[in-house]
């Protein structure tokens, strides 16, 4: 009996079995990522996106805080419902609604922008370090067949960041409708994590055809990881490690999916 490996990523040449990439465990990816995160190299890698996010937040607050607050104040003053609520609260001797609402909205606009910037930095610059780290230890048998990986990674980071920023701003008025503030925050961060990291996790190792198959067959798993990461993102202390930790989770999940895909494309004759 001879084992033949197909070179095409077409589903006609190699089907996923139930034990294939579609069955890759999300829990297993998180478990392996926790172990990898404790390595000194990965602990050091946490610093880059964290510092980028911190510096980005400070610069955004320094340059855009005052004009943004003034613009928000002008926009809110045109909303009759908020003006009536403001007058009623002041008449009752309560606090001014606008005094707290405007800074809160300004933070809700500026801080996520710096956060997605840190995530993009992690995807483009830290993910290669992550892939070298986990690839040498647990996926040495997974060959690198990616093409134009840097260009693909940068383009993916740009469009996901732009879509996140636009979607976040456009849906921001819905935050006034409970509990949409939490729901929208979870959704958009799940979008950012899943769309940003899943491509970078496999772009160096998978061929374009393999990458397309993996993204199609494991879409639910990638979104599940993004949802879990977005829930963790609600906890401020997690902001420090999430860019690198999410990269580790997606790297383990994506490379395991690629490994099983190639195993399933071995046909026994």
UniProtKB/TrEMBL annotation:
Transmembrane segments: 41-65, 100-131, 152-170, 176-193, 214-233
InterPro entries: CysZ/EI24 (IPR059112)
A Pfam short name: EI24
Chief localisation class: membrane
Protein keywords: Membrane, Transmembrane, Transmembrane helix
Presence of the UniProt keyword Plastid in the record: no
Coiled-coil positions: none
Keyword Cytoplasm: no
Membrane topology: Multi-pass membrane protein
Subcellular location: Membrane
Stated name of the protein: Uncharacterized protein
